[in-house]
Amino acid sequence: MLSRVVVAVLLGLLGLVFGMFGTLVHTATFGSFTFPWGIIVALVALACLLTGIRLLSRGRLNAACAGLGALVAIAVLSQESFGGSVLITDSVLGWTWMGGAVVVALLVVGWPRLRAAAA
Predict the structure, then answer these.
(1) How far apart are CA 55 and CA 71, in angstroms?
(2) Which of 31, 59, 63, 93 is within CB 3.0–4.6 Å of 54 for a Cys-Cys bond?
(3) pLDDT in tens, 24-77
(4) 67-115: per-residue pLDDT in tens?
(5) Hey, what long-range contacts does 27-35 have (CB within 8 A, 24 or more apart)?
């Protein structure tokens, strides 16, 4: 039981780190075309993290802990700091990052486990 709690806490911290790095990179663009590669990389990285955890674990708890950690990081970093700066702005990219992270977490955690068909 203790090992499951420790693993859940560590995965929550890993999700927190992914949420922080995704928040920092979600507004990055490419060249003069302003192609938003940062939001794509951030959402794909979060989806890969949660999907990998879900595939390697038996239940939904571990993926839910990592997803919750990422969402907590996004929620905290979307608040205005004491100096008045904001990391997640009120823009299309900001709303896409916040909403996309919620959708990715809900899809990965809520997806039913498919059993192998009996041959």
Answers:
(1) 20
(2) 63
(3) 988 888 777 788 888 899 999 999 999 999 999 888 899 999 999 999 999 998
(4) 999 999 999 988 888 888 888 888 888 899 999 999 999 999 988 876 6
(5) 27/89, 27/93, 27/94
Domain boundaries, the chain: 13-57+91-111
Tell me the C-alpha to C-alpha distance, in Å, between residue 98 and each of 2, 58, 62, 112.
Answer: 32, 28, 21, 24
Model confidence band, residue 119 (pLDDT cutoffs 50, 70, 90)? low
- State the alpha helices, DSSP H only, in the chain: 2-25, 37-56, 61-77, 92-110
Q: Which of 43, 36, 89 is nearest to 67 (CA)?
A: 43
